[in-house]
Write a structure and sequence with these properties.
Layout (H helix, E strand, L loop, with lengths): L8 H7 L4 H4 L5 H15 L6 E5 L5 H8 L3 E6 L2 H8 L4 E5 L12 E6 L9 H14 E13 L2 H8 L6 H13 L1 E2 L10 E4 L3 H8 L6 E4 L10 H6 L1 H13 L12 E7 L1
Parallel strand pairs: 1-2, 1-4, 2-3, 4-5, 5-7
Antiparallel strand pairs: 5-9, 6-7, 8-9
GO molecular function, one term: 2-polyprenyl-6-hydroxyphenol methylase activity
Protein name: Class I SAM-dependent methyltransferase
GO biological process, one term: methylation
Amino acid sequence: MTESPEFAPEIMDYYLQGREDGRLRSGRGRLEFWRTRDVLRRVLPPAPARVLDVGGASGVHAEWLAADGYRVEVVDPVPEHVEQAGRLPGVVARAGDARALEDADGSADAVLLLGPLYHLPDRADRVRALAEARRVVRPGGVVAAATISRWAAVHDMIRLGRYAEESVRRVVDDSARHGLLRGNERILFTTAYFHDPDEILGEFGDAGLLEARRYALEGVFGLYADIDEWLDDPERRDMLLDVARRSEGEPTLLGVAGHMLTVAQA
């Protein structure tokens, strides 16, 4: 078994606050959740395939995957997340690091990295996590990884009215230039890496994952001030999700979405 690499303490401290479980279950976070679920339901092998949900947090996605009939195992470095996910019906959870998985070669049908790449500022670590996913998944299996878009923090701070604060503006502008966010309470996030939309293709390629396909998750809709009203109205929500699906691969919109999902077969 490979020794797990160090996990940044400020990132651990952030997730110990317990915010992650509710982030995708309410408010505008529902758009990211529903769009991620929509894409995964189209690209994953049929149930009861074995899905390794690496960095799966409290099991927000593992829960519906298990309900869909998948054999799901969550791997997460946060003890509270492991405990929460392990209580979900049909979900197994254990502690672990995306860069050093305990699983045998080719032992999973799909590996999800729906959070780890956010918090690996060094490119070598991100490629290492993707290479581990490729090692663990069977030939022909699916690897799917989520990334945060380069301008996401700037957009969020403008929407929240905090961009006018010089200290906030300096930090988020820097993240848009270089990708690295030094998060704090004013920005409502922790240390993170934000991808340029083309950058992830090189990281997938260096990990041996070729012919990757990118999906813009929220599209432009994550920028809308009244997005909650659309998501609360079933009729308007269906229209919005339909447009988001039809425009998910549009190259000019990839960097506008707050999050992007990249998928490849091993």
